[in-house]
Write a structure and sequence with these properties.
Length: 338
């Protein structure tokens, strides 16, 4: 009889634990739906109860902190996530959330301390390097670009470092890296307002790059990769007299690709250039160049081109939607000259 009662009590206790776990999971799922609807008030209401049941649940804490953040209740947001990052019970995303809140609170020293600690724990997190770089850039600290570069090196699939680095190099008139990182960016993040912004930078970047009649006239502090890039581009200078537009850029970049494959592909294998070669082989390279440069150069002319080349446009669109563009780790060729 005692064994029966003990077994019954154990079964009831186990059932209560399982039910509680299911309740917390359901609460979290319900809260996520409210977050997707931007109803952060209801999300906070539910997540608060879920976190009370499981105080060490990092996933719930992150969503609760974010829900407060999106309601501009920054003090509440940091109070939720801070115990986790202080006690090393956090992933890289939690440190990113904490850093973002600190920055909006104006607590830049706390943000910097947070990022440094996080990067020491998660040295492969591109998101952490990007956010730390943004903090340094706001402080006019030239080390910002080093953080974005490190993010590109350690986590080449992390898109934001390319975005920030491309813009930074454009305004620094370092067009080689602005063009390369910008084109990588738009192939990872292809259909946003930031994509259109970087496309404008790419078109103008090529115009500014070829403003010099001799791209090899100043190679001071250039890496071997940059010199190789400029050498191949310099051989296309004769095309530039026709102006820079999608058609001439298609010609320039096709000739560049052929020259690169002949002279530098073995030394500097690079996914971006291999991708361009793949598009060329499939007859999609003109449509690809129109996609990058057409609307920025002349929207009406681009719309006319796509109308007159509907099959090419559709084939390129299908191809673009069928792939996930990624730069392999190890294809990193930037180096800072000290």
């Amino acid at each position: 009889m005692k064994k029966f009662l003990f077994g019954l009590l154990f079964l009831c206790f186990t059932s209560q634990v399982i039910a509680q776990q299911e309740d917390v999971a359901q609460l979290h799922e319900n809260a996520k739906k409210f977050m997707q609807q931007a109803d952060y008030g209801n999300a906070v209401l539910i997540l608060t109860r879920a976190l009370q049941q499981e105080p060490q649940n990092l996933s719930i804490a992150k969503d609760l902190s974010l829900s407060y953040f999106f309601q501009k209740e920054d003090r509440m947001a940091i109070n939720v996530i801070k115990p986790f990052v202080d006690n090393n019970n956090a992933d890289d995303e939690a440190y990113q959330i904490a850093g973002t809140i600190y920055r909006r609170l104006g607590q830049e020293k706390d943000a910097e301390k947070n990022y440094k600690k996080a990067i020491s724990l998660y040295p492969n997190s591109g998101g952490l390097y990007n956010d730390y770089g943004e903090l340094l850039f706001k402080q006019h600290n030239p080390d910002a670009i080093r953080q974005w570069e490190k993010g590109i090196e350690m986590d080449p699939s992390s898109v934001n470092n390319y975005y920030n680095a491309s813009k930074y190099y454009y305004y620094q008139r370092n067009f080689v890296w602005s063009l390369i990182y910008g084109e990588i960016f738009i192939n990872i993040e292809s259909f946003t307002s930031r994509t259109a912004e970087i496309k404008d930078i790419l078109l103008d970047g090529y115009k500014k790059l070829f403003a010099s009649p001799d791209l090899l006239s100043n190679l001071k502090d250039k890496s071997d990769f940059e010199i190789a890039f400029l050498t191949c581009m310099n051989k296309q200078n004769s095309v530039v007299i026709r102006g820079i537009n999608p058609e001439t850029l298609t010609m320039i970049r096709t000739r560049f690709m052929l020259e690169w494959n002949k002279s530098y592909d073995q030394k500097f294998p690079f996914k971006l250039f291999n991708f361009q070669e793949q598009l060329l082989e499939q007859g999609l390279f003109p449509a690809y160049n129109q996609w990058i440069f057409g609307a920025s150069q002349n929207l009406a002319a681009y719309q006319n081109w796509t109308s007159n080349h509907s099959a090419e446009t559709d084939n390129f669109k299908k191809f673009k939607e069928s792939i996930i563009f990624k730069i392999p780790k190890g294809q990193y060729y930037h180096s800072f000259i000290k």
